[in-house]
Design a protein that fits this description.
The complex is a heterodimer of chains A (141) and B (318). With 141 residues, chain A is of the alpha/beta class. Chain A has four helices and four strands. Chain B has twelve helices and nine strands. The chains are: A alpha/beta (141), B alpha/beta (318). Chains A and B meet through helix 2 and helix 3 of A and strand 8, helix 10, helix 11 and helix 12 of B.
């Protein structure tokens, strides 16, 4: 069996999860590689979750939230906007490629955009290949 | 009553833990009244073969400091585990990997290249690197194997207690030794420290809402002595670090670097610290956020200063 990218998608309940719903009810075809986890807000996604996803075998992590200014909790997504770049800068030091983590904004009316983001992410991760965290072991112990 | 048999050992460490052990001062005399030191490479002449000859579980307590990065250290950790009734991981390196644990951002090849070939002060034309064995006319010389990955003591052997710190504060060391002397050790697995939630709870600085436009390294700014260092843009790990030390660093105008380990309930101290720092950036503009993040030169080394081997990812992919 050929390898398929495993991507964990954290979707905010108020915008992106509904955008995903719209993509489904609109019968848009998109890659089946993203396993969706619904969260109350993109800022609920602690950077720990992203690392935990990689440690548990994910090849990529997608975080989707409401557009800036549209957060149901007023400024939750601004916190996400600050955390993800710092997390990505640190993950680069761990040898995690930039494209393996993506933050984007998808509103409840953007079913099309949701499908596009999923497809783009899947193809980028497919091009990178599997992420194997060499947890604890190098070549020489 | 028979005296307690005490062993102390150092693995991959700097020797600071030995200084910390001596820092208990005149209390050392109190300790010696009830304990015999049977092994302590820094101070007494007992060889590895003497330890090997000791019966299993004949040492009552072993204070083990330092991380595990070579085959010799792994061997000693396993041997001392077998010989000791109680094995205590003493200090940040033994507990979490410590400063030597930052080597997990690299591998053996990269470290040897830097240390034995590339460093400015190195003159090694033949590019000779350490080898585990070498033939000379007199016989075979050997060196321990250097591993790619640094491990903590609990990742190597079963550990009974943890004494945190880099190095542990005198009061923390004494808390453990006193419990030992009075035979009142807590349940197995306890982190022996004064129970304070976070370093911030020990820190007397004034704390307000945190909003930061620029991060500074300690040498770039003279901090206000009264106000929270993090609020002044100095990366301070107090928010993500268990208290109990008494916050000596922030009181000396230096930020906490996280040596007492994660706050209760947190497994990965570094990413917890990262999350807190990112959240206080005072901007909603992605470009400005990127500029502010640029001030943090080495996120992995800053956030995982002492805990990289015990983090979720444990090492970098190289």
């Amino acid at each position: 069996m050929s390898w398929e990218p495993k991507i964990v998608g954290f979707l905010c309940n108020w915008c992106s999860y509904r955008g995903a719903d719209l993509a489904g009810t609109s019968r848009i075809h998109f890659a089946p590689n993203v396993k969706v986890i619904r969260v109350p807000c993109s800022t609920r996604v602690e950077p720990t979750f992203v690392i935990k996803a990689f440690q548990s075998g994910a090849d990529g992590v997608l975080i989707l939230g409401c557009h800036p200014g549209d957060c149901h909790y007023i400024e939750g997504n601004y916190k996400t906007m600050r955390r993800v770049p710092l997390l990505k800068k640190m993950l680069a030091q761990f040898g995690v490629e930039d494209e393996r983590v993506r933050l984007d904004w998808v509103s409840a009316s953007e079913g099309e955009k949701y499908a596009t983001v999923i497809n783009e992410m899947t193809e980028k991760v497919r091009a990178l290949g599997p992420f194997k965290s060499n947890n604890g072991e190098g070549q020489h112990g | 009553m028979a005296k307690i048999k005490l062993a102390l050992y150092w693995a991959s460490s700097c020797g600071g833990c030995e200084i910390a052990q001596l820092q208990i001062g005149e209390k050392l005399l109190k300790l010696i009244e009830v304990a015999d030191i049977v092994f302590w490479p820094v101070a007494i002449d007992v060889k590895y073969k003497d330890v090997e000859a000791m019966p299993e579980k004949s040492i009552d307590v072993c204070l083990f400091n330092g991380a595990i990065r070579t085959s010799e250290q792994e061997h000693m950790a396993k041997m001392l585990r077998g010989k000791s009734k109680i094995l205590i991981a003493y200090g940040a390196c033994a507990n979490y990997g410590g400063i030597p644990g930052l080597a997990n951002l690299f591998n053996r090849e990269m470290i040897f290249h830097r240390a034995y070939i590339e460093t400015e002060s190195t003159d090694n034309e033949k590019k000779i690197l350490p080898q585990t064995s070498y033939q000379v006319p007199e016989g075979t010389l050997s060196l321990p194997e250097f591993y790619d990955t640094v491990k903590s003591l609990p990742q190597t052997v079963d550990v009974d207690f943890i004494i945190p710190g880099c190095p542990p504060e005198e009061k923390t060391t004494w808390l453990a030794l006193e419990a030992l002397i009075e035979n009142k050790m807590p349940p197995k697995g306890t982190v022996i420290s004064h129970n304070v939630k976070a370093v911030c709870d020990d820190c007397p600085r004034k704390k307000n809402e945190k909003k930061v436009k620029k991060f500074y390294r300690p040498f770039q700014i003279i901090p206000d002595p009264e106000v929270c260092l993090l609020e002044q843009g100095i990366l301070c790990a107090g928010v993500a670090t268990a208290g109990g030390c008494g916050a000596p660093c922030p009181q000396a105008n230096m930020p906490c670097t996280g040596c007492y380990g994660p706050v209760k309930g947190v497994t990965d101290q570094g990413v917890h610290y990262l999350s807190a720092v990112a959240s206080i950036i005072d901007s909603t503009d992605p470009e400005e956020i990127a500029r502010i993040i640029d001030d943090i030169a080495d996120p992995a080394g800053t956030f995982y200063r002492y805990s990289l081997p015990e983090s979720l990812l444990r090492r970098a992919k190289v």
